[in-house]
What we know:
- This protein is about 55% helix and about 15% strand.
- By secondary structure, the chain is an alpha+beta fold.
Amino acid sequence: xxxxxxxxxxxxxxxxxxxxxxxxxxxxxxxxxxxxxxxxxxxxxxxxxxxxxxxxxxxxxxxxxxxxxxxxxxxxxxxxxxxxxxxxxxxxxxxxxxxxxxxxx
Length: 105
């Protein structure tokens, strides 16, 4: 029984190291999304930090600020969704069958 417990602990430690490595790799990744046919581009890292925003001059219209705001929101939400999807895909391999609430990685 004691040997079985030691093996299980070793397996858990191995899995924890793999999870930490996968999470570090995710944090180093770059994600990019655009809207308005590429007029707005938002870049973020795997930590969900926005690292760059590019706005094409032709989309800047002082009479239509609402459109610019909508394009920025769309690109930002898209890039965040990409990060969420990649995180779930990457970290999900470690939590399959564990019935953990969403976001608990």
